[in-house]
Amino acid sequence: MGPKKRDPLATSFKCPFCDHESSVTVAIDRKTYIGTLDCRNCGQHYTSSSDMRSLMQAVDVYYEWIDACEIVNEPRTTTSGATTDRPSATLPRQSVPVASRAGPAPGEKFTEDDRGFIDDADDMDAEAEYEDE
């Protein structure tokens, strides 16, 4: 009778972004030992960064991707000690005062045509005219 044969490892997987079953396929280039993963449904793409050489299988690339997604989505602790669900960027953000964000884009000149383009000052009570009776 002999030893029991092992079940083959999966080659198509569920996408955590679009939640579509069997839409993620993995290709491994055996010459460069780079695994790439693509979702046929939503277009997500991932390139493996592991160094598993000949032992690498499709399931390894998929779970490396899942681990990378979890790392990006884990809550971060801010410098004040508060926890935030927002993932941190790879580059540090520059602190920009709110007042400096208003106005023209960098390199743009403010012209007379721009003055009064958006004028909300007189519309403060505009909805009062349409009160329910």
Could you characterize what this model shows?
The protein is of the alpha+beta class and 133 residues long. The chain has a domain at 12-72: N-terminal domain of TfIIb (Single Sheet). It contains two helices and six strands; from the N terminus they run ββββαββα. It has helices spanning 58-73, 98-101; strands at 12-13, 24-29, 34-39, 45-47, 76-77, 83-84. The strands form two sheets. It has a four-stranded antiparallel sheet with strand order 1-2-3-4, with helices on one face. It has a two-stranded antiparallel ribbon with strand order 5-6. Strand 5 (76-77) and strand 6 form a beta hairpin. The protein is elongated. The termini are far apart. Mean pLDDT is 76; it is low at 87-101.
Question: Briefly, what is this?
Answer:
This protein has 133 residues and is an alpha+beta fold.
Strand content: 15-25%
Tell me about the largest β-sheet. Answer: 4 strands, antiparallel
CATH topology of the domain at 12-72: N-terminal domain of TfIIb
Query: Which residues form runs of ≥5 with pLDDT under 50?
Result: 87-101
Content-based structural category:
alpha+beta
What global shape is seen? elongated
**Can you list the strand order of the major beta sheet?**
1-2-3-4
Q: Compute the number of helices.
A: 2
Which sequence of SSEs, written as H and E, runs from N to C?
EEEEHEEH
Radius of gyration using CA atoms only? 26 Å
Mean pLDDT: 76
Instruction: Return the CATH architecture of the domain at 12-72.
Output: Single Sheet
Distance between the termini: 87 Å
User: How much helix, percentage-wise, in residues?
Assistant: 10-25%
Number of strands: 6
CATH class of the domain at 12-72: Mainly Beta
